[in-house]
Amino acid sequence: MDVMGDKATLLETGRFVQPADREDPGAAAEEMRHRLAAEAGDVDAMSVLGSLLLRRGDLDGAESLLRAATAEGDRAAANNLGVLLHQRGYADEAAGWWRVAAVAGSAAAAHALGRHHRERGDEPAAEYWLRQSAEQGHTLGAYALADLLEHRGDVGAERWMRTAAERGHREAAYRLARTLDRRATTERGERPACPAPGEDDGTRSAADEAEQWYRQAAARGHRRAALHLGAILERRGELKEAGRWYLNSAKDGEARAACALGFLLRDAGDEESAAVWWLKAAQDGDGNAANALGALHAERGETQTAERWYRAAMDAGDVNGAYNLGLLCAEQGRTAQADQWYRRAAYAGHREAANALAVLLLQGGDAAGAEPWFSKAAEAGSVDAAFNLGILYASRDDEASALRWYERAAAAGHTDAALQVGTARLREGDDQEAERHLRCAAGGGSAEAAYRLGTVLDARRPSAGPPVLGEPAAEKTECEEWYERAAEQGHRRAQVRVGMLAAGRGDVVEAARWYRLAAEAGSRNGAFNLGLLLAREGSEPEAALWWTRAADAGHGRAALRLALLYARRGQLTQGQRWAARAVELGPAEVAERAARLREALQQELSA
């Protein structure tokens, strides 16, 4: 409630302004002047002196003066008398004097009277008096009216919250920002990610205005506003300014800001400072910070300390603590305890814990027990669980159910699931759908998807003849770019394919490089092709080494090449041995040629 109509919030704070340790001579002289005037019967002096004593906490001295001024019709005195009586516990009598002052036009008294009626549960009366106060320009009245209307779900709440915010009320500014922020989030989910050119993006406007109000509230020392402002700036990549607001909020005691500041510092490479802020936040009861400390100690191999912080997170109500305890136990081979913690988190609704529990059960051979937990996690939105369900159904040869879960996981961006869907569509002959899913998987980093996408695009590519002498080599096609992406990730078949395409362009050096990479990684086709390339370049001894490696790995054509090579050299016995090997390995046309060669060599040896 206001003293003499000013903006002091005595009822809200429960405190009065205390006198300074050393009395101001000027203030003492001013008080003496008012006292002399009051003793002479000056009503204004009585009112002012009463308010001064009320602020000082001298209720007995203030009451007689305020009652005397009120009796003479001073509305500020009536308001302050109401404040005094409220402080003494006479709420109904205080309301009577506030009513007198409010009827006389005191906006502060109308605010106090409205608050009184709301505390008594009389919302119609509360709204009436708070509206009177707000319409007279009283900031606290506007805020209290907005709070009442918002509680009732009245659309008029925002107007009065905005009014209070515009007049400098920091809590109103924060709450207005929260309203706008929630609206922007809701609308963002209903609108396309990229509005059409020229379209008014109302979502952006609401978000921008929310940021402005957060900034105003934060500048006035509102710690939660500083926290939200820091989060907005961090999402936008303005990390330095975000850190400043997190720091302000954390210093004011906001544990969530201290935790967020810790993550910001960790990402910047300052792990020690991050740990300091996480410790502060965790000690203030922030479960997320306790989990972060647990993870930090776990990474350092300090498992006992990590477990202690995970338990602290769990005690703070953060279900991630139980999940992380499960992970820690699983890494240590403590399967029974991991099962216990996963279950605790899973029963609390932690979807990844449900998935981890299902994996644990599956690894233990309990597929029937794992399935419902996979299902629960997948239905709750776990992408990994949806993919794992696909694997589970595929192991039972239930391809239709497996594909359904793969598609669900792929739609949520799971790379391996997209690869599975793309592969299934290839088997069905639906190249268009296959391409779409393979592109998603390849874009997510799957080497196998990149290779398969390359094969799809390669099959559509018109066959090109050999390069004409004197003409520049053709540019790389899209399929070759995907082959190369897979090859660079170590995909052996892709490496062989890139080598073949390079050889087709006449780029022998590039072809040899890719063949060699594939061969050294164990590709028999890479070793065979490298041998062909070296033989054509006149390096037949080295070619023989790579053909031998390929033939030993089961490559029939390489064995036939070795048989021919040794036959030309006159090493008939070795030639016959490799020809026999080629017959065993095939394929059919190779086996047929190798059989004829073996017979010819046998006749030569028998002659």
Can you describe what's shown?
With 607 residues, the chain is mostly helical. Helix content is 77%, strand content 0%. It has 35 helices and no strands. Helix 8 runs antiparallel to helix 9 (139-152) and helix 21 (351-363) runs antiparallel to helix 22. It is elongated, with a radius of gyration of 40 Å. The relative contact order is 0.02. The model is unreliable at 1-22, 191-200 and 468-472 (pLDDT under 50).
Distance between the termini: 124 Å
Please tally the β strands and state the result. 0
Average pLDDT level:
88
The total of helices stands at 35
Q: Given the helix and strand composition, which structural class is it?
A: mainly alpha
The percentage helix is over 70%
Low-confidence stretches: 1-22, 191-200, 468-472
How would you summarize this macromolecular structure in one to three sentences?
The chain is mainly alpha-helical.
How are the elements arranged and paired?
Blueprint: H1 10-13, H2 25-39, H3 43-56, H4 59-71, H5 75-87, H6 91-103, H7 107-119, H8 123-135, H9 139-152, H10 157-166, H11 170-190, H12 202-219, H13 223-235, H14 239-251, H15 255-267, H16 271-283, H17 287-299, H18 303-315, H19 320-331, H20 335-347, H21 351-363, H22 367-379, H23 383-395, H24 399-411, H25 415-428, H26 431-443, H27 447-460, H28 478-488, H29 492-504, H30 508-520, H31 524-536, H32 540-552, H33 556-569, H34 572-585, H35 588-606
